[in-house]
Every structure is written in structure tokens, then in C-alpha cells.
Write a sequence for this structure.
């Protein structure tokens, strides 16, 4: 699931310089601080205990990147291999082993409106194409700016389901499933 990504907060004047690079261990403190802001503003991640380096630095990721805006860390994206089930396999025409799931995707308030989110997605598109892999993701229904970004970029919604992350007492947010 993904937080708000494209809110128009870019300042007037020259376009900020956006650089995408592989994530390093040295990025952890900056990324967790940004994630804490995104959690407060966008409820992403939904669970406060996920605002942590452990959540961002999952050893199972195939790759992860950071967006820098004018030299400052502003966002993050990762891809997880073997993503999906029968719904995604049917939509992509590929087994889950040939599908990457986009995860831990967020851009902090200072990076919004700079093109950082699109640049991160461009990087993932290129990585998937280079490795001949399909892409999929899920996003919580309340993250409307993320949904708009995906749909503008040609992602196709293939389903929806309610989650049970919080147990029987809820809440039970609806998650939309998309493929590229």
C-alpha cells in the first residue's frame, strides 16, 4: 500500500533536481523520518509500528531505490519478487515467480510535486523490463492521490478486497489491486 504521492507542493521557480539511486544502509534515518511524516499525513503505513527501518529494509526485496530532490532524500520504492496470486497471474499472464510487487513506496511532503514519485516508478518500470518481469501492486482505497498517479501512468485495476490486518474488530480497509 502506498501513501499520498503527487500532492502539488512544488515551489515556483526552477524545477527541482530529482535523482534516483539505489538505497543504502546510510539512508535509514532519513527514510524513517520521512515515513513518520507520511504516516501522520496519509496513514501510510497504516500500522504505526511499521514506521521503522526493519519494515523498510526487508531482506526479501529484489531491489530498492531512493529519490533525492535537490540532494535531499525525499522518497523510496522497493520491489518484492514472487508477488501475487491467481488474480494477478490471470491479469499478467505470468506466474507469480515472474511478477514483482511494488512496495514501501512513498514520497514525503517536501518531495511532492517534484516528479520524484514518477521518477521512482520509471526506475521500477525499467528494472522490470530489463529483467522481463511483470509488475503489480496494491493500494488502500483512501490513498486517492496514489491511485490517480497509477491510473495516469496506465496501471489497470483488476480487483479489490477487504483486509483483516487489525483482526476481527477492524478496521477492514479496502485494498485495490493493480497490474502494469
Amino acid at each position: 500500500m502506498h501513501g499520498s504521492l503527487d500532492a502539488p507542493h512544488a515551489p515556483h521557480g526552477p524545477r527541482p533536481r530529482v535523482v534516483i539511486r539505489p538505497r543504502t544502509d546510510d539512508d535509514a534515518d532519513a527514510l524513517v523520518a520521512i515515513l513518520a511524516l507520511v504516516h501522520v499525513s496519509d496513514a501510510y503505513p497504516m500500522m504505526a509500528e511499521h514506521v521503522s527501518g526493519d519494515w523498510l529494509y526487508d531482506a526479501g526485496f529484489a531491489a530498492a531505490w531512493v529519490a533525492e530532490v535537490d540532494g535531499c532524500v525525499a522518497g523510496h520504492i522497493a520491489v518484492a519478487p514472487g508477488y501475487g496470486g491467481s488474480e494477478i497471474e490471470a491479469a499478467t499472464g505470468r506466474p507469480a515467480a515472474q511478477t514483482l510487487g511494488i512496495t514501501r513506496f512513498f514520497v514525503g511532503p517536501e518531495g511532492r510535486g517534484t516528479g520524484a514519485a514518477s521518477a521512482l516508478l520509471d526506475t521500477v518500470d525499467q528494472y522490470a523490463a530489463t529483467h522481463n518481469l511483470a509488475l503489480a501492486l496494491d493500494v488502500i482505497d483512501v490513498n486517492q492521490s496514489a491511485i490517480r498517479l497509477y491510473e495516469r501512468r496506465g496501471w489497470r485495476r483488476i480487483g479489490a478486497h477487504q483486509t483483516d490486518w487489525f483482526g476481527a474488530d477492524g478496521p477492514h480497509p479496502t485494498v485495490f489491486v493493480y497490474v502494469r
